[in-house]
Amino acid sequence: MPTRTVAVGSASGLHARPAKIFVEAAAAAPVKVTIRVGDKKPVPAKSMLSVLALGAKQGTEVTLEAEGDGAEQTLSDLAALLATDLDASDG
Amino acid sequence: MAEVVSLSGIGVCAGVAAGPLLRIADVPALPPMVAVTDAEAEVARASSALAEVVTFLERRADRATDETVAEVLRAEAMMAGDEALLDGVREHVEEGADAVHAVSLAFGAFRESFEAAGGYLAERVADLDDLRNRAVAVLLGQPMPGIPQPGHPFVLAAKDLAPADTADLDPAQVLALVTEVGGPTSHTAILARALGLPAVVSCPGVLAIAEGTLVLVDGATGRVDAGIDQVAAEAAVRGAAEVAAAAAALTGPGQTSDGYGVKLLANVGSAKNVPAADEVHAEGVGLFRTELLFLDRTREPGLDEQVEAYREVFSAMAGRRVVIRTLDAGADKPLPFLNQEGEPNPALGVRGLRIARQRPDVLTTQLAAIAEARAQTGADVWVMAPMVSTITEAATFAAAVHEAGLPRAGVMIEVPAAALRARDLLGVVDFLSIGTNDLSQYTFAADRMCGALADLLDPWQPALLQLIGICGEAGRAAGKPVGVCGEAAADAALAPILVGLGVTSLSMSPRALPAVRAALAGVTEADCRRLAELAVAAPDAATARKAAIG
Question: What is the number of alpha carbons within 13 Å of residue B322 lying toward its C-beta?
Fold first, then answer.
């Protein structure tokens, strides 16, 4: 199954605004995506509460996983989003 | 025309306002669990309640004028509509829980993981509780808890308000506060004053007034008139505004009519309060409360974060005096990172400076941050410690302040032991600042949150004034400043008496400052001394007030 591991780029971690942007993008994706930290249980990337509960900080490595048509592209897009500092995105 | 009903409470923030009364709904209590016969129906009920919460939050977000507020509300809406949450609800229903309990348990699971993650997420636990309470209220057919958002100005009534509720108030929408319980020196009252909202506490019967009834609130006298007509209400509000405008027209440093100077300072919690202080021409800050930075934190704020927060206030007050108080936690202001649970009587426990007995590092870091912020701004920074009881404590604190490179060290007078030894204290520190709220509480053994004992917490109590007089005399003898930064300083009628007792500065919520300035301008220094003698000699607070005001 295609996966991507990426370090969270946002200054405040995967919280508040960055989490909301990521979750919205994941919800709009054509395939079901999961996200996990290390070996912990993967959770749905489109669940705001589950993503917040990961407690991922800036620099925490998270792994995305998805299967199906467009999985590779979706994972690349979401990984790029995670690597960006979303706290700084609109100044 | 409905009959006018007059209620009376304790006025804690002067001002007159009229508007429809709306109540804050209580947090719903969970009823006993009922047996579930149709699991699917139960999940559907929970799902539709959560959907209602989502709709409510989205509608509020659409209405919010502030973009940040709107974004926070949308994020909350996303949480309430989260699929993972509904999955959790379903699991609990399948295990036999009814909709209300399943919702509560599902939120509880996320609450636990948020708390376990610590830091930022632990601070978001309150959001989850808010969502849970809303969903539970919907399921029980009750109004959602929290401050009403009717979209028009109103008078807010409640049994009591948590500081978090009052901090969240929109002063443009809330015209006045009336609570059934609560004391005049509770933090709710203090926050109401900071927001400049007319407020009455300890007002029995206010919760019996029908929602939407037009009420007239007088925050000076504590009178609440329900069922008054629009014309009379408007006339009363207009008359009060004219009196306030006359006081506000007076500017300049505080002084009596014969030119005896009394510094008029502002109480602030952060740089956000400084514009209000400027508006009333405050001569500086007499009490910069630093605990706002620490409240609700699971970890102590770091040195840099503290430097930044202090620097903001120091820069905004450049060239003026800023008296900053070191962390005043404990008792009614518990701090999660200090792990203070389990004290049998927190008001008599480890609070204020006493925290340094267990955690000297917290004080050292704070003093280092204050020194750094001062170095960067060049403000006239004075530092004082809360809850000092002995000369040894004061001397140790002063040494730590000087060690940190800060020139002025002072202590708060909040317990009778300190007031009685004011002269000795001034032998080791540069100034005193009297916290009348706590000094009342400890002198009369009356909890400041206890509305039923409000008469004992009256700042006109002669015994309290006598203790203030001991401090004032000590200040005169030593030639050192003695301020009052408790709520008594905001009482315009009391100001001349405090000055007569030897107090050299008064620090208060900015809103109260114009009236205090006007009161002092109307008396001579000799008047102040004479009034002070009368008040101290009075047998009780009511007589003291009467002797001074006439």
Answer: 31
Mutation test of the interface with chain B: which of A21, A52, A89, choosing the one with the most B Cβ atoms within 10 A?
A52
Class assignment of domain A3-83? alpha beta
DSSP B200: E
Taking CA–CA distances from B117, the nearest residue in chain A reads A55
8 Å CB contact between B464 and B443: yes
Select from B502, B379, B369, B371 the least CA-distant residue to B434. Answer: B502
Return the domain boundaries, chain A. 3-83
Report d(CA B10, CA B343) in Å as an integer: 31
Tell me whether residue B187 is one of the annotated catalytic residues: yes
Answer for the pair A46, A74: CB distance below 8 angstroms, yes or no.
no
Instruction: Find the residue in A nearest to B87 (Cα).
Output: A47
Q: Does B120 touch chain A (CB under 8 A)?
A: yes
The rounded average pLDDT for each run of 10 residues, N- to C-terminus, in chain B (550 residues) is 76 88 85 91 96 90 74 85 94 95 95 83 80 93 82 90 65 90 68 82 89 91 88 89 80 93 94 90 95 79 94 94 92 69 80 92 96 92 98 98 97 98 98 96 87 81 97 98 90 93 95 89 95 96 81
Q: Could you count the other beta carbons within 10 Å of the beta carbon of residue B36?
A: 18
Place of tokens 């408790």: B486
